[in-house]
Design brief:
With about 350 residues, the chain is mainly alpha-helical. Helix 3 packs across helix 7. The protein is globular and about 60 Å long.
Length: about 350
Amino acid sequence: MKWTKQKVNNLFFFLGVAAVVVMLLTFDVSFIELWHHLCKAGYWLIPILGIWFFIYGLNALAWLCVIRGNVPDEITPHSSLLSSLSSRFFWRIFRLTITGYALNYATPVGGLGGEPYRIVELSKDIGNQRAASSVILYAMMHVFAHFWLWFSTVFLYLALAAVGDLPFTSATAVVLAIITVFCLIAFYLFSKGYRHGLTFKVIRLIGKIPGLKGWSTRFLERHSEALHNIDHQIAALHQQDKRAFYSSLLLEYLSRIVQSMEIMFMLLLFGIDCGGGWTGLTLTFLHSILILSFTTLLANLIGFLPMQLGVQEGGFVISIAAMGLSAALGLFVSIICRVREIVWIIIGLILMKIKE
């Protein structure tokens, strides 16, 4: 059977629908408890859901920076980032951002469902190799920004501990030291990948998995030139267009900071505002950044589960308890975040079927 792009689109769509059904049927709480939590959230659900419109907007801008730094001007005629905000191309990137993350949330194997879909769809605009390199570069940037979040929050925790706002024990020092070393190793590996590309090496590494050596060898023989071209394009962004590279990284990092407002809204819902006033709200916001950072670290360590089932919940409970707050609050935050994910997955699946 010949796989057309429409058939691939339909395949991803039905996989996403099936995943949503499974998630709803295997929710961590009963529907009665779920309804109780939703009623408790009340009108706060509006900003909790709405903030993701801006988060995905920042993600789309970050991806657009990668594309504009990786694709010749004649393919994407608008030269400035501001002019692209009103362009049809930005809407397309924004739509693919939402649908791609919807598939990432809904599929296993570390959330890789959205990347193949993005490559297929973007190839209509800029060709297969450019689409593949742009999607791979953005995926790398997305993960790279995570490491910078984890690395920077180590120093945020130390600063808050220094002023007596958070506890600091020997166990805390060990955990922070491990995170620091972990991030420094990742920075080194990413620097190698950005300088030389990594697709060729990844395919060759897959060949070391039992049963996949033959596939890897055949794939490298058939697509060797294309893979080398993709690696060349990956390396070119960092070497030739540092402005696009660092703009994308900054936007991705900023999206994580904005995401922490989702947690802050839920803390405020429970009346947790560190004493109120601007000082109290600032501390609550900083605590939210720490909770998000440590939760995403735990979730990404075991990223092969769909929506990180169970891991995200445990991550929220542990992170919030480490901040001296109740485990019940951690469970509430995790459940509302899970509902938000399902809502945006459904939105992403709907966008897959909207014709441009």
